[in-house]
Design brief:
heterodimer; A: mainly alpha; two-stranded antiparallel sheet; B: alpha/beta; 2 domains; 10 strands; about 25% strand
Chain lengths: ~325, ~260
């Protein structure tokens, strides 16, 4: 990387951070559209879950099951906080790790499948999670878990690092900062991952699993590692979502959400780490904007998606970075 | 020196079909041994059995005195038995250099977490793999195209890249699947030189090949398979004179095959 590229990159990151941490809150305070905090928090959390899906795409698997892990992560956090009185801040990593661990068990057998077969199985996962949430006693069935306390304060030796969310005048601002911070951290981690050797090994898997294993790469381990990280992100995203909504139901994340997580990746561009972030933003607001078209909403939406796939098969970010592939 | 790879009574049945039937042969250190035979004779199955991509029905493969059949393919590769594929099987979307660097992975000392955090050991590995990749690419005449995306490379380079990826995994014995397929005489000669040069690095070579002229030129010994059974084994001169081989495999067309 040349010095100029490095400088540009740092400037881009700084501009992005300034935008989400300063410009957006200022603009919202100015216009009084505080409802946007909730909307943007949702986008950030959906982007985290989509980032996980993106990673499974990166090893060459079509993942339409992220909704399952968002639901599982949400329930783990909700049960720990509401039933056992644990701090939300502790429940968050536990929810992520629980999803990662469970996804290892699920992933070991199903990751042997490829292409449409893997996609079909993951599609079923979301439905399995929903039915499990309906049936299990600990999840309280269709009534769900409600009135979940907001995140409490984080303190160290009497010093308050993060105040309890209930003490905020605008609680959604606190959630906005939480969601955006988690998004920044998760995507920084993802970026680091795919640009390290681990990412190159993942890319090698996507290109050719047989060759990778004949070069001594532990293919099953790497596959399940990618899937566990992916599910971790899904679980974390789901857990924060539940904290914002203060409730969770078996229908909080459905097959529709799983499909959207995947579409976010397609739309942003599978070749770019930050693709899912842009994809989520565009898809979320695009759908809302089309609301005014009433009964034609789905028609226009689907038409635009088909056009995008035809015109920009490598995602929205490919506009900025034209493919260098020789024709 | 002791036998490096020992194939003993290797048998593979797919349902009622016996693809490989009680095949045994030894590979000596630093030799070039070719497996030849008509299409569907079971050559590729033998390759898959040795590299442990499929499990034998009966029999076993021993590498340096240790049974390797039944182990996971990546474990077999780590022990030094590395398989390459036909030229279409490479990391298509990566640059030549990146492919070779990835193939170095089994030499790495740092953990995956180490690579993620960028520890000193990981950075040392990275630097060393980069140097070693450049050396291998130069060695196989790919120095000039190292930053090209693999799928943009011409045939000859792809074949060399396949071997480069194999070499990066630090093999004791390298299994080459039809390294001369689809090449003209000129390209074949260059490829033969390349394979010899690889041998001179101290790597034992096991080839599956169709190109008779190249096989006769390059091999120290040849194993002939027909209908899953070994019908002959010996030096190129002995194989050329073997009645059974001529009858069963070369038939009356020996002229056209170029013997």
């Amino acid at each position: 990387m040349t010095g100029r590229e490095r400088g540009l990159r740092i400037a881009a990151v700084a501009a992005f951070l300034a935008f989400v941490y300063v410009a957006v809150p200022l603009a919202i305070a100015e216009t009084g559209r505080t409802d946007l905090y909730y909307t943007l928090s949702s986008v950030a959390l959906l982007a985290i879950a989509s980032g996980g899906v993106w990673l499974t795409f990166y090893i060459g698997r079509i993942n339409i099951g992220q909704g399952a892990w968002a639901l599982v992560g949400g329930y783990v956090s909700a049960i720990l906080v509401a039933t056992y009185g644990l701090s939300f801040w502790l429940s968050l990593p536990i929810a992520g790790l629980f999803c990662a661990g469970a996804s290892v068990l699920v992933g070991l057998p199903i990751l042997r499948l490829r292409g449409v077969y893997f996609a079909m199985i993951t599609l079923v996962l979301t439905e399995v999670a929903r039915l499990a949430a309906l049936a299990l006693p600990v999840t309280n069935g269709a009534k769900g878990i409600t009135s979940i306390p907001s995140p409490g304060r984080i303190g160290l030796a009497g010093l308050t690092i993060v105040p309890a969310f209930d003490t905020f005048a605008e609680k959604n601002l606190a959630f906005y900062f939480l969601s955006v911070t988690m998004m920044v951290v998760c995507f920084a981690g993802l970026w680091r991952l795919v640009n390290s050797r681990v990412g190159r090994l993942f890319a090698a898997l996507r290109q050719n699993e047989e060759l990778a294993s004949s070069m001594g790469l532990n293919v099953p381990l790497l596959r399940v590692l990618a899937y566990a990280i992916s599910s971790f992100l899904g679980g974390v995203g789901g857990a924060i979502f539940v904290a914002i909504a203060q409730s969770i139901y078996p229908s909080s994340f459905t097959v529709n959400d799983s499909v959207n997580f995947m579409l976010n990746c397609f739309l942003g561009g599978l070749g770019y780490v930050f693709g899912p972030m842009l994809g989520t933003l565009v898809l979320y607001f695009g759908w809302d904007l089309l609301f005014q078209t009433g009964q034609y909403q789905l028609l226009i939406y689907s038409g635009v998606m088909i056009l995008l796939i035809v015109l920009l098969p490598n995602g929205l970010l490919s506009v900025r970075l034209p493919s260098r592939r020789a024709t | 020196m002791a036998t490096i790879l020992k194939v003993k009574d290797l048998t593979k049945r797919y349902g009622g079909l016996t693809a490989v039937n009680e095949v045994s042969f030894d590979v000596e250190p630093n030799e070039i041994l070719s497996i030849i035979g008509p299409n569907g004779a079971g050559k590729s199955t033998i390759f898959k059995l040795i590299s442990s991509f499929v499990k034998p029905t009966r029999g076993e493969v021993t590498f340096n005195g240790e049974v390797i059949s039944g182990l996971a393919p990546h474990i077999v590769a780590r022990k030094g038995v590395v398989r390459t594929f036909q030229e279409t099987t490479i990391f298509k979307g990566m640059t030549a250099r990146d492919s070779v660097i990835v193939a170095h992975h089994l030499r790495s000392r740092a953990s995956l977490a180490g690579f993620f955090c960028g520890t000193a050991a990981a950075r040392r590995d990275e630097a060393e793999f980069g140097r070693s990749s450049d050396e291998i690419l130069d060695f196989l005449g790919l120095g000039a195209v190292r930053y090209e995306i693999a799928s943009n490379l011409p045939q000859g380079h792809l074949r060399a890249l396949g071997i480069a990826i194999g070499l990066a995994a630090d093999p004791k014995i390298l299994l080459l699947d039809e390294p001369f397929a689809g090449m003209n005489a000129d390209e074949t000669n260059r490829a033969v030189e390349m394979v010899r040069a690889v041998r001179d690095r101290g790597v034992t070579l096991l080839l599956v090949e169709h190109d008779m002229a190249a096989v006769m030129k390059i091999s120290d010994r040849i194993v002939v398979i027909n209908f899953g059974v070994k019908i002959a084994e010996g030096t190129p001169a002995a194989i050329r004179a073997d009645e059974k081989v001529i009858e069963a495999y070369l038939g009356v067309e020996d002229e056209t095959i170029g013997l």
